[in-house]
Every structure is written in structure tokens, then in C-alpha cells.
């Protein structure tokens, strides 16, 4: 069972099926966001459907971008063979 799961996510022949599964999960999440009650939203953008997903994606993107910038440009990363 676990081998089939690993093969599904690791082998290139399942790429199209993985893409369809990802789009299905994305659409399901977006549709579920329309069912959430929003009467307690304090700001107007909190009442917009999809705001949480957009905010989360933007936050993850910024965390990755800033950490890569700090690692590469500010010399916080060391070479792979630093301790050798």
C-alpha cells in the first residue's frame, strides 16, 4: 500500500493524474470557502471568498523568498562541504 502511494507521488508516469488530483483538491477547497459563514469578519477583505487561501499562499511565498534571499545574498548559507 505505501509503495503504491510512494510510486504515485514519485514516478513521472503519474504526473497527469497528480495534476488532476491537485486541481480537484484546489477546486474543492475554493468551493468549500463559499460555505463558510462570514458574519464575524472585522475587515472587509476577511469577508471575501478565497481571501484566506490567497493570504496563506502569499505568506508562504514571502517566507520562502525572504529565506532564500537571506541565505544566498546575505551569506547565511554555508557550502555543502563546509564541515569536511
Structure description:
This protein has 84 residues and is mainly alpha-helical. The protein has 2 domains: 1-35; 42-84. Helix content is 60%, strand content 0%. It has 3 helices and no strands. It has helices spanning 2-10, 15-33, 51-72. The longest helix is centred in the last third of the chain and has 22 residues, at 51-72. The protein is flat, with a radius of gyration of 20 Å. The N and C termini lie far apart (40 Å). The mean pLDDT is 86.
Radius of gyration: 20 Å
Shape: flat
Name the beta content range. Answer: under 5%
Please tally the β strands and state the result: 0
| Largest sheet data | none
- What is the string of helix and strand elements? HHH
Q: What's the end-to-end separation, in Å? A: 40 Å
The residue-averaged pLDDT reads: 86
Describe the protein's topology.
Layout: H1 2-10, H2 15-33, H3 51-72
Features:
mainly alpha; 84 residues; 0% strand
Overview in brief:
This protein is mostly helical. It is about 60% helix and about 0% strand. The chain has two domains: about 1-35; about 40-84.
